[in-house]
Every structure is written in C-alpha cells, then in structure tokens.
Specification:
single chain; 36% strand; mainly beta; 405 residues; eleven-stranded parallel beta sheet; 13-stranded parallel beta sheet; elongated
C-alpha cells in the first residue's frame, strides 16, 4: 500500500477498481453493490463488525490474485466478526487466489442458514444463478457456516476450495446442486460434513467424494429426507454416488428414490456403485447409533432399470413406514432398511451389506408377482426380522412365509 486506507462508506453504483496501492479498503457499514467492483492482486479488504456486503442486480465482486499476490478479505477489528458477503438476485462473486476470513456472525435466524458467504438463486421455477466462482480460495474462521447456497450452485470452473475453522459446517447446499461442490479440503470445522438442505434432487447430479460425509437433515425441519424425483418435463432424475462417499442421516430420515407408489415408471433413479476397497455407506448421524435410527431407502413406482446398489453398506435403518405388502404382522409388515414397493425387472442390489435393522433387511413390498433374488450376493448383519421378505400374494398370505431368508 502507498496511499491507503481507503474508506467505502456507501454502496457501489458505478464500476470501480480497488487497487493494491490504496489498500486496505475499509467497509465500515453495510454496503450494497450494484456495479462491478474489481479487486487487484494483493488488494486487502477490511469489513467492520457485524457488517454485511450484498452484491445484487448484476453487480459483481471480481478479483484474480496469484499464488504470490493473493487477495485478502478479513475483519477490520480482530475478534469482531463481520456478517456475510452475499450474492443475490443476479449478483456474482468471482475470486481466484484469495483468502476470506473472520465473518459469518450469526443472525437472529436459523444458525445453519447463516454463512460467511451466502448465495441465492432465482425462484425455484427459474434457472438458478451461479453466485460464486471460487478458484484456489480459502474460507477460514467463520462464526457460522463457511458457505450457504439457496437454490443456487457453484460455477463449473470452481476448484481447490478450502474451508476450515467454521463454527458450524463448511458448506450448506441444496441436494439438487450437490454435484457443483468443487474439489478442495473441508476439514478442520466444528462439523466436518456437507450439510444438505431439505429440497429434492430434480435433475441428474453426482455426489462426489470430497473427503467428508454428507449430512441429511437440518434442525427445525422434522421431514428429514433425501428425495430423488424429477418433476415437470424431466422424465427421470438420477443421483450418481461415487465410491467412498459416506451419507449420514438424521434420526427418522428417509431416502426416497421416487416418493409415490404404484405401477407408473419411477421419476427417480439411484446409481450407487462402490468398490470392495471403497464402498458407499448410508448410516445414522446419531452420536451413538442404534438399530433403526432412520427409516431406510425406499424405491417407489416401477423401479428404473438404471438403479444400481453395488458394494454399498446400509446400516442402522429399518424403521416402520418404508416397506410395502408382506406377510408379516404389524409393525414389521412395512419395515425394511431397503424397500422396493413395485417389482423391479432385475435384482439391482448386489455385493451390498445391510446391518443393524430392528425389523427387515430388504423388503419385497409388492403383491401378486414372484420374488426377485436379493439374497445370493448380499450380506446381512444383526437383522432382527427377515433378512429378505417374500412379496405378498394377491389373494392374501394363506400360509405364505413372510421371510424369504
């Protein structure tokens, strides 16, 4: 710096360049940016206690540093956190080789919805925006979450994002855009998990292995679910899960691959193809897991032929409510850690372990059609009820055994 500090006490309505020479650039009060603000390499921005910076209406904050001349955005007063840097209603934040720290002061709202960076897309009916392009960026020391996205996603060019030192989660993002989470490091936070919001997966997406688990279920939301189901003109939404991914589910949570039952083709598909060395894990998020903490994985509608569960482990599921028709007495008759409610064309569950269910392992929840082999290549551990159930005949049980195994 040769001429700083530079005070920015009002909103930016004309394009500006915040230079390294005029650093530090100080934002003492809440600021709205409706124009283009460019940060030079080596520029430093200081934000006052409790201050919020909001980029909106096609405004932007852009800065491309280098490994040797990074950009720094941080608190003005040590130990006095600023609020959030937000990109909403078309605003964008594009940064490369930058460090952002000391923000995320919790608001009066829900803690998990507060982050040091906050991005919001258009309404659910419109194409969401990409509020953030973050390349070689570090977020550290947030007093809430590192980044929160609402109906929005990271840009395709985002990569090498590091989030550490957050008092909550590194990131809280919608399941529909979980595939946009960039490569990076997400450890060193109070909760080293990617928190998934309550919305459904409506389009094809991939859950990448980013080195930390994904967490299904948020406080103050009693309907904890991960639902894969297209709507409108899209026939099928497919969730692909990479080997090694861990999904932790809140108590009473459910994974729905199509919510609705019946003979119509399912509007959701699940491709969970792990490996023997790197299986995919669905498990309880409880501190002390117990049998049937969560409901299970439920396949509604006519299962899509693309469904695959291979080298997967499903544990601590199997509450009543996920199954279908079986020849078992209540409450066991509709309880399965994995439940298929309409007969599939193939036995798409292979090399999979189901463990710690208070009731059934795999529930064949259809009626009047022959069973499917879910026994041969799968493993069952600590299953109190049937490992696999028989489907129910159309005419009632009439002596049919409820358990196939």
């Amino acid at each position: 710096p040769t001429s700083g500090p530079t005070m920015h006490a009002s909103g930016a309505t004309a394009d500006q360049v915040w230079t390294a020479a005029q650093s530090p650039h100080v934002i003492p009060f809440d600021m709205t940016i409706n124009s283009k603000v460019t940060l030079e390499p080596c520029a430093e921005v200081q934000i006052g206690p409790g201050v919020a910076v909001t980029v909106r209406n096609q405004g932007s904050i852009s800065g491309v540093g280098t490994a040797s001349t990074p950009i720094l955005i941080h608190e003005r007063d040590p130990g006095q956190a600023w609020s959030a840097m937000s990109a909403v209603t078309g605003g964008r934040i594009r940064l490369a080789y930058a460090t952002i720290r000391g923000g995320g002061k919790p608001s009066n709202g829900i803690f998990e919805n507060t982050g040091m960076l906050f991005g919001q897309g258009n309404s659910a009916a419109a194409t969401p925006k990409e509020p953030f392009s973050l390349r070689h960026v570090t977020l550290e020391g947030s007093e809430s979450q590192g980044v929160v996205l609402e109906n929005a996603h990271f840009s395709d060019d985002s990569l090498d994002l590091t989030i550490r030192g957050s008092a909550g989660y590194p990131a809280h993002i919608p399941p529909n855009y979980v595939g946009s989470l960039p490569t990076g490091t997400y450890t060193g936070n109070a909760h080293d998990e990617i928190l998934l919001g309550p919305t459904s997966i409506l389009k094809d997406t991939t859950m990448h292995d980013r080195g930390v688990p994904y967490h299904v279920g948020t406080p103050n939301n009693p309907d904890a679910r991960l639902q894969v189901q297209a709507t409108g003109g899209t026939p099928v939404a497919t969730l692909t899960i990479e080997p090694g991914v861990v999904i932790r589910l809140d108590k009473d949570a459910t994974v729905y691959v199509e919510f609705f039952t019946g003979e119509n083709p399912a509007a959701g598909a699940l491709i969970a193809r792990g490996t023997a060395e790197r299986p995919i894990l669905f498990t309880s998020a409880e501190a002390t897991p117990a049998s049937s903490d969560w409901v299970g994985i439920r396949f509604g509608g006519l299962p899509n032929p693309a469904n695959i569960l291979d080298h997967v482990r499903v544990e601590y599921a199997g509450q009543p409510g996920a199954g279908g028709y079986t020849c078992l007495p209540p409450p066991a008759e509709n309880s399965g850690a994995i439940s298929i409610l309409t007969r599939p064309s193939t036995g798409f569950i292979t090399n999979t372990t189901v463990a710690h269910s208070l009731y059934q392992g795999i529930s064949s929840g259809w009626r009047g059609q022959p069973p499917v082999d879910f026994i041969t290549s799968n493993t069952f551990e600590d299953i109190a009820g049937c490992k696999v159930t028989n489907p129910q005949p159309l005419t009632g049980c009439n002596g049919v055994q409820g358990c196939a195994l």
